[in-house]
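Continued from yesterday's entry.
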Amino acid sequence: MPTPYQTHIGSFTRKSTFFWAAVGATVGLANLWQFPYLASLHGGGLFILLYLGCLLLVTLPLMTTEAVIGRHARHGIVLAMDGLIRSAKRSRAWMAVGRLSILGAFLVLSFTAVFGAIALAYVFYGAVGRFSGVGHAEATGILAALVSDPREFRVFMGWHGFFLVMVLWVSGQGVVGGLERAFRIVVPGTLMLMLALFGLAAWYGRIDGAMSQILEMHPQDLTWGSLSAALFHAFYTLGLGMGVWAVLGAYTTPNTQLKRSILAVVLMDTLVAILAGLMIFAMATQGSAFDGERGFSLLFVSLPVSLAELPASQFVIATVFLMVVMIVWSTALALLEPVVGWFREWTGAPRGLSVLLVGLVVWLAGLASLFSFNLWSQYRLGGATVFRWLELLTGGLMIPLVSILIALFTGWCLTRNLSKSMLGKTPGLFGTIWFWVMRLVLPLVVAYIGIHYTAGSLVNMCDTGSEALWCEPGPGLVLQEQNGTPPQIIETGSAGVVDDGAGEGAGELLPAEQATENKPDLPQSLPQNAPKDGDILYHSV
């Protein structure tokens, strides 16, 4: 077995591959099923500017840090952290950072593949005309038959296995022959397909209404909740805290301009989110007003119903969900790589065997999420299925914790010379901002995100009638979902001070019993056991 720092897990051959791989890792389902909803509720173009500011000032420094850690060590996150800990002569307890990030990537990949399976099935469903002439009820029945019917779980398992085979086959070809080639073909192909579908939406859809809701400035809709929503979306959509950026940084060529490439990725992610938002809004909404849909109901019910009205709808639906499959496929490849890289560096096993073994465990772990929607749907702990607990464990605890620890370690444990050496040549202002953001800003902001995500998700589980301890709030406590952010526990007192969620300012006085009356009217036709729209699966990408 090779000793540490003698392993070589691979590298790209072209400097632009890092850009394409990073775009593939960051552009995910949240761009399709969450961004249009948030932008329309929080000021349109003003929300986009706010979101871009959160990306540049908060998440860009963390993305840069993870990538330069990997490039500096030329290893995955575990051995890279080991080297930095030795160089800085710090406690070995910091090794938990790398190990938690690998575990987080593994768990997120396990349920990401489940969503990829649904999208893959929809490609074939669209091609054979399953959605021709269907309404909301029929489309809901199709989704329920695939996802929630305990009698048909083997069919769902088949699609799940099919999707994972696609991912493992590419990864097994190697870093150059598999990953690099796939990212350089699949990601540009996805963007071209998205542009073509945007043109179709502009021709047949309601593009004027989409542009009005998403691009025009609506200052009356901008609240403090908008900042929270922008922070959540900026943090959870970029694959942070899972070792992805470290392994991609380790694969970069020596002449790759890393910081410039990361900035380009941030801007591209924002552009894709806008483009996807306009496309989805124009295709999937009825009339000229946004109906508040997001998540499962938007992507797997409303979208195929609306597309079924177009000429050549079979081809259009199959093409749209082919684009969705390509998005999830590239994300799954990026999530798999840090796990495979860690396994190879730990065991010295060849890549083919490593991919096979890791893929088998990912498949088994994914069955826990898959069965949560059908066979195990009645088994709940604290009002939540296995899938919901996995999602909460990764999104509410592990990913924020890893991000906080990376920020604290680089900001407080590394010497300034080592930090500058890792960061490389950079304008003095950027270096100063990066240093203080990592030291002070990021730990506080990410702690806020993680705590609110966890607290809101726990309370949201009480909707199932759970008798868990956290489901017994005292008098005057209500659960309020604040415009696309995870639900918050809000003390109402006697008057009931809550955010009405309608974009008319926070802190309005409402009776506690009216706390839910001002939320958007969301369709209530989802299969009973499918993930609900309130389960914000940002990083399931």
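--- second protein ---
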Amino acid sequence: MHNRGLLISTALAAILSLSYTVCAQTPYQFKISGVNGAMRDNIDIYLQKYTAGNHTPGVRFQTTLQQEIQTALQALGYYHSDITVTANEATPRIMHIQVQAGEPVRISQSDIHLSGDATVDADFAALLSKQAPKQGQVLHHGAYDGFKSALKSLALRKGYFDADFTLTRLEVAPELKQAFVRLHFNSGKRYKFGAVSFNGNQIAEPGLRSLIPFNHGDFYLTSQLGELNQALATTGWFSSILVEGNTTQIQNFTLPINVELQPERRNIIETGIGYSTDVKTRLKLNWNKPWLNRSGHSLSSKLALSEIEQSVEAAYKVPLASVANDFYQVQLGFRNRDNQDTESRESNLALERHWLLQSDWYRTASVRWLYEDFVQADQNASISLIMPGISFNRSKQSSGSMPSSANRLLLGVEVSDEAWGSDASFVRLRSRIGWIGSAGNNHRLVTRLDGGAVLMEGLSQLPPSLRFFAGGDNSIRGYGYETVSPRNSEDELTGGRYMATAALEYQYRVKGNWWLAAFSDYGSAWDDKPEWVQGVGFGVRWASPVGPVRLDFAWGLDGPDKGFQLHFALGPEL
């Protein structure tokens, strides 16, 4: 009997222990009623730490919850809340919370005083107008602390390095439902930029100084130090850049700037492999010499090999006085193509002059010599052309591999004339417009318009590289690469004098970096009269670290090549 009683006691203890363990591991649920909006959100934040099952149900825990909710509401100015916490015996970990917020405490007096040079600073005036606590407002402790932080942050960004509060006082009289705010902020004098010194640079200083976005004696702005850092990084001349104020040499409220630099390697070799349904597998080899001398000249070369195209290019860049915005470039390239009904071997030599205009447009003026030996359908010829041209290009986008907003515009023209030694006379026009927009975080719209025209009587003296073809990953999906084109009597592709395509695509974020897309493309390439074709389909997008990866299932609806096409591409969408 003794052993039997011991066994029963042990079993009961085990059951109770198991029950307690299960109970302790069950998370709490809070059923809150009576409040919504900011008050409900703040209560949820304060109660998050109690959802885990490591608190024993009971009156003491309910009191703790009441105190936490009271604190959460006081942070928003509600000091007269009535809070009831109850739980059923059958479900002790489901807490029913009834809240009556009561009348809020309002700001009865707002004594905000600004002194120092910031009294005439428009940015401080705007901050006070937008964020300063005002008489009659409901007291919000977070907004009060946020305004104090905003004042200090703005002062540091604009060079008020001695700025500080001379008085910070928040007094609350809950019984009167009143609060009294007293903030006195003395900005002191605003500092100015001093001399800029460069250390460790292998590039002559005149070129580096053209990158400085401010003058000696200008008022300090942190953002302009960031612009200088970015401009130095864009040159590609340096492996390490550190831009900072020299606080040990401050005189008369003037802050000298030190720029510590480390040269980039003399030779950089990059290899890569990629794939798209247009050109199949592509191998790449890039060899760059970021700087050749103290003037900052650079040399870049590229080798690209794919099933239908092989090319090698080299570019020699000579920066001018404003190294970030203006430069000369000499380019030499050779390309061999064997695609559809096109076989060509072309050589290009171009002299280019680049400008960055104040309107953020890049302007490029060029003179290009092209020699092309080709077979296009039933035509076998070679041609030599000298083409001066000019183009304008502008692109903007938000951050990220799949930006929420972006736009790109390209307009260009090249002219050839027998008067200066070309084998043919014509004017070739090219344009491309792209736009990306978003609605919230989960919806994107991508649009593209692409067009071109060659003003001449016929195609016989125009090489394939200057004719227009449509179709492919970045053109009209649902059709093979460069298969939308005029055809001869043998049904061979001849290319066209004109081309126009449009794409409209909607994307929806499924989860994380994964998106679904639906699209419709429309366009044609023609010589005399367009034959419009349309492609429709859906796809998958992955925002990879190196750019969008696109997989499209597309159907061509018109023409002799209509049918299904699978498109795969990696790279920018515009």
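The first helix runs from residue 2 to 25. Residues 1-24 have pLDDT under 50 and may be disordered. Will compare against the first tomorrow.
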